[in-house]
Amino acid sequence: MSKEFEDMALDADTELDINDLSQLQYWMHEWDVSERDLRMAVANVGTEVSELRVALGR
């Protein structure tokens, strides 16, 4: 895991850039979810990582 993503994982206020493929892939792997599920969660709760984590049950 890159240092940038390690920092991202620790920062509760981090926002996911849905247009950044590397971020999508990182969080899909981290939370073991499909791209579709991740994008649906973003549509429902927004891009804040802490909110996405809750919405995805992670």
TrEMBL record:
This is DUF3606 domain-containing protein. It comes from Keguizhuia sedimenti. Pfam families: DUF3606.
